[in-house]
């Protein structure tokens, strides 16, 4: 069963929509799926549905809601790609983390006492997943092709739970020098594991579209599934 529902902000002064996919029977844990710059589109909803089929409560918050609710864009359509960049530029990431925190809170309320919550994000969502590892009380964090993580290294001291990063080496939005700084900066952090994907570009694990590399997506998604099984 899957549908959009609304949850309150942390401050309780507004509500925003979250796509929720529930498993059959009691969920074994929850996973917050953090969108790319394309909104909670069909690809993100499919990822939630897949986690629900695997027995998890899956929730994808609509993070662009303050500017425009229910953004849903396609990376393979030029005008929509440009619109996505526009939304990203206007997006307040600190507020976004607060909304992710509110989603974690809502997930725990549904799971009940002792319920664990993992987070997985893609592109902008990958960056936000890393930020969440530094700033929220989630239980496990996965970032696919996170952008600008090298600029967040000064926050890594706050990481206390497991973090998994999927890094395509030919990422057009994360140049080699940025990747080197990320690897070097995180190599001594016992909570963080990085996997490189040689010769692959940004978006290789997209659920659909021209960016997807089937073999690499299955490899990365399998590692993510094992990671959550171990830590949630």
Automatic annotation (TrEMBL):
| Pfam families, A to Z | DLH
Q: This protein's superkingdom?
A: Bacteria
Q: Where is the signal peptide?
A: none
From the Swiss-Prot or TrEMBL record, what is one GO molecular function term? hydrolase activity
List, alphabetically, the Gene3D superfamilies matched.
alpha/beta hydrolase
What range(s) does the Dienelactone hydrolase domain occupy? 16-231
What name does this protein carry? Carboxymethylenebutenolidase
């Amino acid at each position: 069963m899957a549908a959009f529902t609304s949850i309150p902000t942390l401050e309780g002064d507004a509500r925003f929509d979250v796509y929720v996919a529930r498993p059959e029977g009691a969920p074994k844990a929850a996973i917050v799926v953090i969108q790319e710059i394309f909104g909670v589109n069909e690809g993100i909803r499919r990822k939630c549905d897949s986690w629900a089929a695997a027995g998890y409560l899956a929730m994808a918050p609509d993070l662009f809601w303050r500017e425009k609710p229910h953004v849903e864009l396609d990376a393979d359509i030029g005008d929509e790609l440009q619109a996505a960049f526009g939304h990203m530029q206007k997006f307040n990431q600190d507020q976004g983390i607060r909304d992710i925190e509110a989603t974690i809170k809502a997930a725990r309320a549904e799971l009940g006492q002792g319920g664990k919550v993992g987070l997985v994000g893609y592109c902008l969502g990958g960056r936000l997943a890393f930020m969440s590892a530094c700033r929220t009380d989630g239980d496990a964090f996965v970032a696919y092709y996170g952008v600008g993580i090298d600029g967040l290294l000064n926050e890594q001291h706050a990481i206390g739970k497991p973090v998994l990063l999927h890094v395509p080496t030919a990422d057009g939005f994360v140049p080699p020098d940025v990747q080197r700084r990320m690897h070097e900066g995180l190599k001594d952090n016992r909570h963080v594991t990085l996997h490189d994907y040689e010769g692959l570009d940004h978006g290789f694990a997209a659920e659909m579209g021209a960016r997807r590399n089937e073999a690499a997506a299955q490899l990365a998604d399998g590692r993510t599934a094992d990671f959550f099984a171990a830590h949630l």
